[in-house]
Structures are given as structure tokens and as C-alpha cells.
């Protein structure tokens, strides 16, 4: 029997899976870690502990738990949260904590400076993306401006998946999908790194080598073999960002397919026949030449449920708290008895791209319960998700099929609110462990053991979440939109220096 290893490093948890050639799961393992928030607007991971440390732990555990001979593991696929920014030295050692994706908003000034220097329209045309907190280029410039000694020492600037693959193989590579998030340093037309827009950010030789996602990046070195338990010489594919691997895991294959990932953040990927040009959305080449993806995401989603449990539900047993809170929310009616929640606890990404946006609970009175508030939180996330759906529609890119995935799909109220507010049904596949499963399939695809369409037999459709109209949501959603518009100046004022 042939096996494939897939490991994914998430914001709060890493997951690993060993899968056989039929798609059956031979072993599954997880490991939690924390997101570091050194100051408001910053989000970091310790790359050696949270990225490589988790990979080594999970790899060894999966091999031990399954009893599989490492020689029978024919290829390895990894993904991680992203895009991230991490400077490394000539040996590939991290020089600081990894700066996370769009939830880290430290480079707001650099975004403003680059927009002024280059021009918003020029950046969008060449790099396919407006500069937002998701963009790596401004974060590299932040490093240059604020940590010049680390910037000068850095041999390469990498993302999270690159770091893992370099630890495994010794080769510093990045897939085109991830590289497109290094705006404005990636030219989407030429599909290469370019300093045509600005030479002030970074010499191009300090960026990883470009590959397509399923290309083999190298093989497991002897040092990596000792650290992971994998057989030396095992092929390792280039890999990608976690959300993209998760999309593939549930069968996002064709133009019109859209994944909605219910994780620490909501992240959405829509495949399209042509490049979608809209400054509110992100663009990247898909895994294969000639294919296109359009992305979007909220800054805080599942993170908010953790915050609520830890702060408002601190009297509850952490092991059972989410179940109790779900029961309380279920006792509240759709519309949360008139409460409206803005989920902008770390600013917001798509579609408003406002680093000053703030969270808000609006409409409280003395009859409201914790269940009402928790339901309002969930429905606020669903309203934010519908705002994204409407943005796709305005850009002429309506989805033909919505596929839901991620840990948040266990929350039935969240799923139903998303479909009922948007009017869009969602389908769910049999297996929903996410990116780690997608990585295992991509690893098998990378060495030619499967074809792309076989993901449909590995992970078939299981059920549909219908869309049921409720007038309470019509009012709630319109107030949600107006509430931000009418308070965004006050939100920015809160961030102004005294």
C-alpha cells in the first residue's frame, strides 16, 4: 500500500494526516498552539516552535500511531497559514517571529507610502491586487524601516510553507499562488517576481524560487529525516497556503466553484475562467498554468468564538464550552432579538480593507442574554461573509457552487445563518478536516499517483445546507452595512494619537 503525508499549520492548531492510495485515512493527529499578539494590530508565530516544531511532532506521531513503514510514505505535502513574512539567514534559520497574514496590520504606513509612490491603479494592474494588510511587500518594507539590522542580515524573505519545505529539503521555493500575495513584487501577467514597480522593498535574489504547487521541490534530507521520522529521499512538493489546499480538499476544481472556509478567519476562494479585476478582492494564479483564483477573507471569525468563550464564557468548562454556547444561541431567534454585531476585532480585510475598523455590539437592552449575544456574534460573521458574496457579484463573478469546509462547519447556526442571510445554499463533503487532507492528495498528484478529478472519489459530497429566507435577516443585514458606514470615521478617530 502506498501512503501520502499531509500536514497543515493553522493559526491556532496544526493538523496532520496519513492517507492511502484510495483516500482512506490511516492516521490523524492535531496539535494546538497560540497566536502571539505582542501589541494591538500585530499577529505572530514562533516559526521553530509553531511551524517546524508542529510539523516534526505530527509527522512522528502519525508514523508511530499508524505503524506504517516510512518507506511506504511516497510523498509529502505541506501548507501553512499565509501569506506570512519571515526573514531567514543563509542556513534557513529564522531571524525573528513570523509575521502573519492579513490579521497583522502593522504595515499600514508602508501601504500608504507605496500607494503614493507607485499609484493604486498601477499596483492593481501589474500585481493583480490592491495593497492591503494581506500583502507581504509592505511588511517587508516595514521590516526594512523598523528592524534594519534583521533586514540586512536576511538572506531570504520567506512565507510559512516555504520555511517548512526548506527545513525538509534544503531548497527555498514558493508556489505562484502564494507568491502573488507578495504584492507589489509579483507580476501576475508575467508570472514572475519583479521590481519594476519599486526597487525600495527588497532585492529579488532574496525571494524564493518560483514553482507550481504540485511540482516536487526536493526530497527529505538526512537531518529532516531524523527530525520527522520520514524516510530520507522522500519527495516533497512545493506546497501552498492552507486555504488553497483546503479548497482542493473539497473538490474546488472548476471555474465557478467557491470554497467558504470556516476557520479562525473566513477565507473564500473562487475559481474563474479569467482574472477577476477588483481592488476589493485578491487575485492569484491557481495551482496550474492558465487557471485563475480570486480570494477574499474576513480578519476575525473563529477567532471571535474563542475570544467569546475565554472572556464571556469563562465560567464554562473549556472542553464543553462551545457546545453550551451553541445551545444558548439556539434558544435565541434569528436576528438575535435585535442585536447587530460588527466582527472587526482586528480591523477588517475584504471588502472594506480598513485597518481602523472596530468590533461593535449594537442594540443591547436589559432583556438580552448571553445566548443572544453569542448568536449576534455568529450572525455578524455571516453578515460580513454575505458582504463578500455581494462584492463578487458586483465584480461579475457569481459562484456556481458553494462548498463549505473547516472547523466552523460543526456550528450549525453559523452554517445556516450564512446560507439564510445570503440566499445561497452550501454543500459539504464527506471529509472536512481541511488542508492537511488536501496536502496529502496534492502530494499524490505531484508524483503522478492520482489525477485531479480523483479528489471527488476521495472526498464525495455528503449533504447540502439549504437557504431559507427570514425577514429578520433582511433588516439585520442592512443595519450591519449602515452601522459601519456611519461609524467608520469614529473608529479611525479612536486610533489617532492623543
UniProtKB/TrEMBL annotation:
<protein>
    <submittedName>
        <fullName>FGGY-family carbohydrate kinase</fullName>
    </submittedName>
</protein>
<dbReference type="InterPro" id="IPR018483">
    <property type="entry name" value="Carb_kinase_FGGY_CS"/>
</dbReference>
<dbReference type="InterPro" id="IPR043129">
    <property type="entry name" value="ATPase_NBD"/>
</dbReference>
<dbReference type="GO" id="GO:0005975">
    <property type="term" value="P:carbohydrate metabolic process"/>
</dbReference>
<dbReference type="InterPro" id="IPR018484">
    <property type="entry name" value="FGGY_N"/>
</dbReference>
<keyword id="KW-0808">Transferase</keyword>
<dbReference type="GO" id="GO:0016773">
    <property type="term" value="F:phosphotransferase activity, alcohol group as acceptor"/>
</dbReference>
<dbReference type="InterPro" id="IPR000577">
    <property type="entry name" value="Carb_kinase_FGGY"/>
</dbReference>
<dbReference type="Pfam" id="PF02782">
    <property type="entry name" value="FGGY_C"/>
</dbReference>
<feature type="domain" description="Carbohydrate kinase FGGY N-terminal">
    <location>
        <begin position="3"/>
        <end position="248"/>
    </location>
</feature>
<dbReference type="Pfam" id="PF00370">
    <property type="entry name" value="FGGY_N"/>
</dbReference>
<dbReference type="InterPro" id="IPR018485">
    <property type="entry name" value="FGGY_C"/>
</dbReference>
<feature type="domain" description="Carbohydrate kinase FGGY C-terminal">
    <location>
        <begin position="259"/>
        <end position="445"/>
    </location>
</feature>
<comment type="similarity">
    <text>Belongs to the FGGY kinase family.</text>
</comment>
<dbReference type="InterPro" id="IPR050406">
    <property type="entry name" value="FGGY_Carb_Kinase"/>
</dbReference>
<keyword id="KW-0418">Kinase</keyword>
<dbReference type="GO" id="GO:0016301">
    <property type="term" value="F:kinase activity"/>
</dbReference>
Amino acid at each position: 500500500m502506498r501512503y501520502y503525508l499531509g500536514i497543515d499549520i493553522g493559526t491556532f492548531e496544526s493538523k496532520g494526516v496519513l492517507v492511502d492510495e484510495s483516500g482512506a485515512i490511516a492516521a490523524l493527529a492535531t496539535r494546538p498552539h497560540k497566536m502571539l499578539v505582542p501589541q494591538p494590530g500585530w499577529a505572530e508565530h514562533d516559526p521553530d516552535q509553531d511551524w517546524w516544531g508542529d510539523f516534526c511532532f505530527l509527522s512522528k506521531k502519525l508514523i508511530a500511531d499508524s505503524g506504517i513503514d516510512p518507506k511506504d510514505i511516497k510523498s509529502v505535502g505541506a501548507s501553512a497559514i499565509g501569506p506570512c513574512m519571515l526573514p531567514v539567514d543563509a542556513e534557513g534559520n529564522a531571524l525573528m517571529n513570523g509575521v502573519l497574514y492579513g490579521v497583522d496590520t502593522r504595515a499600514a504606513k508602508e501601504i500608504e507610502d507605496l500607494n503614493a509612490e507607485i499609484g493604486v491603479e498601477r499596483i492593481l494592474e501589474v500585481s493583480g491586487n490592491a495593497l492591503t494588510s494581506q500583502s507581504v511587500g509592505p511588511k517587508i518594507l516595514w521590516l526594512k524601516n523598523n528592524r534594519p539590522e534583521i533586514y540586512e542580515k536576511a538572506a531570504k524573505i520567506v512565507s510559512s510553507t516555504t520555511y517548512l519545505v526548506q527545513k525538509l529539503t534544503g531548497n527555498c521555493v514558493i508556489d505562484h499562488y502564494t507568491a502573488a500575495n507578495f504584492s507589489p513584487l509579483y507580476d501576475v501577467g508575467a508570472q514572475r517576481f519583479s521590481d519594476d514597480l519599486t526597487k525600495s522593498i527588497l532585492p529579488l535574489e532574496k525571494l524564493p524560487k518560483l514553482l507550481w504547487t504540485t511540482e516536487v521541490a526536493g526530497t527529505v534530507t538526512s537531518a529532516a529525516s531524523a527530525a520527522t521520522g520520514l524516510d530520507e529521499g522522500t519527495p516533497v512538493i512545493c506546497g501552498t497556503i492552507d486555504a488553497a489546499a483546503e479548497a482542493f480538499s473539497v473538490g474546488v476544481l472548476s471555474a465557478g466553484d467557491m470554497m467558504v472556509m470556516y476557520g479562525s478567519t473566513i477565507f473564500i476562494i473562487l475559481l474563474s475562467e479569467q482574472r477577476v479585476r477588483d481592488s476589493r478582492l485578491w487575485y492569484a494564479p491557481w495551482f496550474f498554468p492558465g487557471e485563475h483564483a480570486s480570494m477574499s477573507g474576513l480578519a476575525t471569525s473563529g477567532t471571535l468564538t474563542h475570544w467569546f468563550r475565554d472572556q464571556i464564557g469563562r465560567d464554562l468548562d473549556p472542553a464543553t464550552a462551545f457546545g453550551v454556547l451553541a445551545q444558548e444561541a439556539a434558544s435565541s431567534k434569528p436576528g438575535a432579538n435585535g442585536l447587530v454585531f460588527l466582527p472587526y476585532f482586528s480591523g477588517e480585510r475584504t471588502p472594506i480593507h480598513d485597518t481602523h475598523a472596530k468590533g461593535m455590539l449594537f442594540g443591547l437592552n436589559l432583556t438580552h442574554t448571553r445566548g443572544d449575544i453569542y448568536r449576534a456574534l455568529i450572525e455578524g460573521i455571516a453578515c460580513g461573509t454575505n458582504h463578500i458574496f455581494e462584492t463578487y457579484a458586483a465584480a461579475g463573478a457569481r459562484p456556481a457552487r458553494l462548498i463549505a469546509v473547516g472547523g466552523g462547519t460543526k456550528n450549525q447556526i453559523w452554517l445556516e445563518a450564512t446560507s439564510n442571510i445570503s440566499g445561497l445554499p452550501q454543500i459539504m463533503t464527506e471529509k472536512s478536516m481541511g488542508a492537511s487532507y488536501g496536502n496529502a492528495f496534492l502530494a499524490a498528484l505531484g508524483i503522478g499517483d492520482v489525477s485531479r478529478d480523483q479528489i471527488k472519489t476521495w472526498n464525495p459530497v455528503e449533504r447540502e445546507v439549504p437557504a431559507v429566507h427570514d425577514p429578520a435577516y433582511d433588516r439585520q443585514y442592512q443595519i450591519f452595512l449602515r452601522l459601519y458606514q456611519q461609524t467608520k470615521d469614529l473608529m479611525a478617530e479612536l486610533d489617532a494619537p492623543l
